[in-house]
Specification:
mainly alpha; 10 helices; 71% helix
């Protein structure tokens, strides 16, 4: 819906480019995979189902591995559906201006694939934090704070009227831009728009680097969750 509204609002601009609105709804779309991952990671602990699961599968890490496979498969399907919905949402505005929508040209394939990988990575990040924390509310606060709230807070930390997105950034802005790039949303965003978006002063990670940083955000809590399973009894 947000993509549709954005496309309709900008379609009146003389230089309107339909594909420019593909990612308009991505910020809010991030919330779904995050919540899904957290609920999957904490589900067995909140219901007590972990007791029977770990009795049936003594190697506890295999239970977590099975959750990873299940969430990855499901989220991939949901992410593809979300991307298809975003494409469909820009078609009415494009048709009203009789503008073609070429999905196989330029950076558009990269953008579409990046959106799918980004949303899937966020779901795995939520799953990892949920499996580590084991409680719904703290896990949700953690992932939403890191992905959605902290980037906004950091962007407000620079001086009003500063040069955050132009040449000649201040040291303060360089630090802020670097941290934002290394956060899950910043790194994942490079998967989607690495050629068009790089904050001055931040590392030039590119799509591959952004993907690796996003993967690290999931792998680190996953490793900690597995270690916790091995060293401590589940109560």
């Amino acid at each position: 819906m947000l993509t549709y509204l954005s496309a309709q609002a900008s379609s009146g601009d003389p230089g309107y480019e339909p594909l420019g609105d593909l990612t308009a709804g991505l910020m809010l779309t991030q919330l779904g995979p995050l919540v899904l991952g957290v609920l999957a990671g904490t589900g067995e602990y909140s219901t007590g189902g972990f007791r029977s699961a770990f009795v049936a599968v003594p190697r506890r890490w295999l239970v977590l591995a099975a959750q990873v496979v299940a969430i990855t498969g499901f989220t991939l399907l949901v992410a593809v559906a979300s991307v298809v919905a975003a494409v469909l949402a820009i078609l009415p505005a494009a048709s009203s201006r009789e503008l073609p929508v070429h999905l196989a040209e330029g950076s558009t394939p990269h953008e579409l694939a990046g959106m799918v990988l980004f949303l899937t990575g966020l779901a795995l990040f939520g799953l990892a934090v949920g499996a580590l924390v084991r409680r719904v509310v703290p896990a949700l606060v953690t992932v939403i704070g890191l992905v959605l709230i902290l980037p906004v807070v950091l962007s407000l930390a620079v001086e009003p009227g500063g040069t955050m997105f132009v040449e000649g950034v201040t040291p303060q802005e360089t630090v802020v831009n670097t941290i934002m790039t290394l956060l899950p949303s910043g790194a994942g965003g490079l998967l989607v728009t690495s050629d068009a978006f790089r904050m001055p002063g931040a590392p030039d990670l590119g799509a591959v680097g952004g993907g690796l940083v996003l993967a690290a955000w999931a792998l680190v809590p996953f490793g900690a969750a597995v270690l916790r399973l091995r060293l401590k009894d589940v109560k």
